[in-house]
Amino acid sequence: MTQRLIVVSNRVNPPAGEGEESVGGLAMALAAALKAYSGVWFGWSGQTTPEFTGELNVQEVGGVTAATVDLESIDVDEYYTGYANKTLWPLFHYRTDLAAFDRAFGEGYRRVNRRFAETLRPLIRPDDLIWAHDYHLIPLARELRALGVKNRIGFFLHVPWPAHQVMINLPRHRQLVEAMFDYDLVGFQTAEYQQAFEEYVLNEAQGVTLPGGGLRAFGRLLEVGHFPIGLDAADFARMTKTSRARRMRDLMTACTVFRHLIVGVDRLDYSKGLEERFLGFETFLTQNPDLRREVLMLQIAPPSRESVEAYQEIRGRLDALSGRINGEFADVDWAPFRWVNRNYRRDELAGIYGAARVGLVTPLRDGMNLVAKEYVAAQDPADPGVLILSRFAGAARQMGDALLVNPHSPEEIADALERALAMEKAERIRRWRALAETVANEDVTGWRDNFVAALAGKGALRPAALAT
User: Fold this and answer.
1) Disulfide engineering: 142 pairs with which of 172, 182, 360, 363, CB 3.0-4.6 Å?
2) How far is 321 from 175, CA to CA, in rounded Å?
3) What CATH number has the domain bearing residue 353?
């Protein structure tokens, strides 16, 4: 019998149908994994219930078997809104000034991970592989082990792991890291994040490194590695040829006739560097009066986590910045900036990317950033656009042929925009080919297969030192 894969994430959000997967990179990648390996996707339904019962709702959605459970309102407040998004998210993105350290949040976080484990336990067969995802579920393996689960359990962190001196700002940080040693394999997006984790373990837990990618600490052994996530590149390339993508590309081309489109697509989040990006575009317009009417910048930023105060505040600041830019530079027949707060389908985004001369991807800190890869995948090989990418995105380690910038510097963003718009076609093609090769070769299939092979003990991360 084929070994099953059980995927566990905070939310279960498989694609509803072809062309309708307007979801984030995590959901896209997990759906691809579960279509290749038989198994179950388990997590929170997104719904609340007056009293937690652990009742499972199992259904087939988009070719994926989904098993979901409802949570109580207090669970959502303390575990999701609280510890996950007010504590860990800002901390892991180096925003300790925004992190809320509330003991009730930590208690809710542990309680929900325990409830997830108790609900998941009856679904687990002896030979199943279990793959938990992201910062919401760091203690899940500890809770499963307490229930007697002996299966191989892996964990993948989609966001950055912070430097040692940042991590120790977290109360009970040692207990959180110790819980990670109940996994068999922990994966990170980049070697940098893996090294930061190892540095913490060596310094705070007096751990030791083992040959082949292992750590010994807290009386246990843990395999660690980095597995950069990618796109389903072939599927995204096909998506650019759909009627909806072509229609959106034609619409954007008509809106920018005689002008170059600069596009950014991000969740409305302080980690994405949107304020810095707006200021960089404003600096570009100030420094290049002769180019002002030759460009249109489109920033798509659907709201997220609207119950968190920091997100409400950033929306107001961005509204003011976009108004200032248009107020200063617009004319009666033209405005340089469009600021759109809504979601678009992935096939629609493919058309928008394809119409853009510049993809502007400038997060202040990002685990990987699949928008950068989607932009590259959507380009016309005969006349591609230019990717401007933050040095602090995980993708920068793979995509050195982009124009890499420090997102904190408006002048550096402005200079990169000027260079991108002036770049000759031959150089654009050369850079795009190198980027496209990376996107195609290091795709979601490789990410999935490499992690699952290592988790199953069939990959390079299964040295003899760890097998004993």
Assistant:
1) 182
2) 42
3) 3.40.50.2000
Nearest partner of 177 among 159, 157, 195, 201, judged by Cα: 201
* Region 298-319 average pLDDT: 84
Distance of alpha carbon 152 from alpha carbon 163, whole angstroms: 28
Q: Is the domain of 119 the same as that of 247?
A: no
The length of the chain, given as a count of residues: 468
* CA distance readout (Å), 21 to 5, 16, 32, 187, 441: 22, 7, 11, 25, 22
- What angle do helix axes 425-441 and 370-377 make, rounded to 10 degrees? 120
Instruction: Give the Cβ contact number of residue 22 at 10 Å.
Output: 17
Helix, strand, coil shares of the chain, percent, nearest 5, are: 50, 20, 35
| pLDDT score of 7 more than 70 | yes
**264 and 168 assigned to the same domain:** no
**183-216 per-position pLDDT tens digit:** 999 999 999 999 999 999 999 999 999 988 899 9
Q: Which residues lie across from 302 on neighbouring strands?
A: none
Please compute the mean of the pLDDT values over residues 343-354 and round it to a whole number. Answer: 95
Catalytic residue, from 70, 366, 401, 443: name it: 366
Options 93, 158, 226, 260, the catalytic residue: 158
Active site (annotated) includes residue 260: no
> For the whole model, what pTM was predicted?
0.93
d(CA 274, CA 143): 38
Same domain, 181 and 328: no
Q: Answer whether residue 300 shows pLDDT above 70.
A: yes
Rounded to the nearest integer, the mean pLDDT of the chain is: 92
Q: Is the pLDDT of residue 296 over 70?
A: yes
Instruction: Judge whether 42 lies within some domain.
Output: yes
- In terms of domains, do 157 and 58 share one? yes
Calculate what percentage of the chain has a pLDDT beyond 90.
Answer: 82
Domains held by the chain: number: 2
pLDDT digits (tens, 9 = 90+) for 75-114: 999 999 999 999 999 999 999 999 999 999 999 999 999 9
Range of the domain at 360: 233-441
Residue 309 covered by a domain: yes
Q: Is residue 466 part of a domain?
A: no
Is residue 401 included in any domain, yes or no?
yes
Q: Residue 129 has which token pair?
A: 């592989």
Which helix (H) or strand (E) is 318 found in, with range?
helix 309-329
